[in-house]
Amino acid sequence: MMRAVYLASAMVVVISFSQISFSEQSSSGNHSVNEIDDAPDFLWGQTELDYRWQLIFVSFEIQGNFSGNDSVDVFALKVSSENGTRVGILTNSTASFQIHSLNQSNWAIDDSISTKWTSLNEEWVYYGEINLSKGYHAIRIEKLGANEELMNYSFKLVDLGPVVPNEDSFEDLSRLFSNLYLLLGFLMLLPLLVVLWWNRSQVLGLQSGAKGIEAHEMRKLRRLRERLVEATSTEQLDERLIESALSQLGDSNWEAVVSDWGEPLVRHLTRQIEICAWRISGVGGTLLIGIRIGPESWNLAAIRIHSPEGSVAGIGGVSPKRLFQGDEVFLDKLAPRSTTFLRVTITGHPSVIGFHLSGVVDGNPVAVVPMSSIRWQEEE
Q1: Distance CA 104, CA 108 (A)
Q2: Dihedral of the CA atoms 55, 57, 59, 64 (nearest 10)?
Q3: Which of 139, 141, 165, 282 is deepest in the core (most CB within 10 A)?
Q4: Is residue 275 within 8 Å of 357, Cβ to Cβ?
Q5: Residue 72 · residue 142 · CB < 8 Å
Q6: φ/ψ (deg, to 5) at 277
């Protein structure tokens, strides 16, 4: 009796492996294979792949069925190509077909595709394709719906050739060139380092150098102020000396000039222009007027001195030489971001004087009128 049991078991094993052996020997070309017994409804994982999973190959056409209580079949697919194979799955059956690309170490699913209703060679079928590496992968078929009747299915595995690497995928190899990048970066910075080394004294002493320049500028402005007061206080005016001093004031820093001359009697500031006026100490009726132009030029510019009350104010002289008449000085064109200083001698005996600047800016007439006036008679 025991002999009969052993003999029957051996025959089952021999039949199972003979089917696998036949399939593997017939893996080239197109072959039709029927499902052997009932395929498992789960994927191998914890245990190794064994005889329970029917082994099939690319280019096979497989016939199978679902019985009343069977809804999932899993087949083992072997790929023998060293570089892998791109496999297509083609079927007319209305079941769900999936190909799982498995990790050959732990049998985890690395990738998976399902068939979709597709027009292929002018024929509508369920189709899908995937890249599979060398080794064992899985095909899973699942019956759709709750129909318990016997259902037949079939599918074909199509060999689409070796796997072609994706040209859009790149591997970051920058780590291999880290030392080269560091060397090139150092070589590019080397000229800057050399220049910094040559000028290290100026770079390290930048703050003190700026202070030195500021002090030098203030000393220059102080000498110009003294020279201007001295030149205008003598009976014989040295016009060349006055014009030179005014020209150097125009070339100096505006804030430094304002700081050196002190708080202006009148100061008016807009985006287009800034005007300051000082009385030159030691000189009875002389004004120093500074004009700083904004980003737009002024054309046909003129400045008018007037007295809001009391005696009429007039102009006795202008330095540098400008055309003037009555109470108005004609400045012509003032360039953008330029600075102009004028020495204006006031005649008459006004108690209060004011002034306004007019001109054409960007084709439009503009007038600038400072709100404050200068108490003139009290300061003589």
Answers
A1: 8
A2: 10
A3: 141
A4: yes
A5: yes
A6: -135, 135
Whose structure tokens read 């120093």? 288
CB-based contact 359:298 (threshold 8 Å): yes
| 264-295 per-position pLDDT tens digit | 888 888 888 898 888 886 555 788 888 999 88
- Fold topology of 18-162: Jelly Rolls (2.60.120)
For residues 96 and 179, is the Cβ–Cβ distance under 8 A?
no
The Cα–Cα gap between 337 and 292 comes to 7
Tens digits of residue pLDDT in 161-175: 988 766 555 667 777
**Residue written as token pair 């000028």:** 199
User: 112 is written with which tokens?
Assistant: 């998976």
Give the residue extent of every domain in the chain.
18-162, 217-379
What's the residue count for the chain?
380
The owner of tokens 């699942």 is 142
Closest CA to 342 of 324, 362, 325: 324
